[in-house]
Design brief:
341 residues, alpha+beta, Phosphorylase Kinase, domain 1, six-stranded antiparallel sheet, two-stranded antiparallel ribbon, 47% helix
Amino acid sequence: METLMSSEHLPDFIQALLAPSAFSHEAANIKLVQTHISYVILAGDFVYKFKKPVDFGFLDFSTLEKRRFCCEQELILNRRLSPEIYLDLVTVTRDNGEFSLGGKGDVVEYGVKMVRMPEDRMMVNVIRSGELGKSHVDSLVDVLVPFYRKAEHNTEIDRFGSSDAVAVNVLENFDQTREFVGSETLTSEQYEAISNYARDFLTNEDIFGRRVAEGRVRDCHGDLYSANICLADKVYIYDCIEFNQRFRYCDVASDMAFLAMDLDYHGLDGLSTYLIDRFAEVSGDTGLADVLDFYKCYRAYVRGKIGLFTSHDPAVDEEVRVSSMDGAGKYFRLALKYAAG
């Protein structure tokens, strides 16, 4: 979920970086975009991403050193799929009260410098324009199948594919959204039906064990949906989960279910089915369908949760609050659909 914030709520260093003079390159029409965990500055041909000093338990950016480590991990992990985009670790320094990128003085923040991708070719915008078709899906599959084949796979990663390990990720979402239950966005009936479905499915230890035995649990992307894909001269997939291994060490089906769910969310059910059928055929993953709806449900609920978090952030404006609530409600309805089979 993207948000915008008025300047009086921004950290001083972010405000300083909203001036073109802060950059050594052309930086006209600077734009600040935010998520619940990041400040993203679009400046000319480049993007600068900084992590907010937040601690959600599953994600901890609360100290400068933790943010530096996660920036370094972001570079390493995302270069697996898009080495052309991820350029360097950057520092924000302060000297005599003045902030600068990579200057003298004390380091007050770390960030990641990236190549800016064309907005009109972002997958979410290709979807909105009605252009997305089977050829795009084929291109995605052609990138993803070899990526998963090469992705790290060992006994430590396998551990995250067990029903007990998956349960940690799935069930914490219900704990984190309990305070919102009973609202129009997340009704008690939805909450009970979805959580009961998830708990019931998690008892199928044999299904999860079979997926592990087949080598389907890998060091995946973890956040595979249209907001993190650009369909330009080639397929660029970026912004993987770097802050918590248990969200990235997962069944390949969990990654693919996220992308398929995203297509469902945008009303592209036919392309969603085509994606899964095509991926299963090319990868030889004949058992993907056994866990698809479960992981779709999980992913939809997570996106709903993030929408709730964003809408209750006191810093967001009313337009963002309303759109985040609307989006969250749509995700929870989609999760219920998967839970109902």
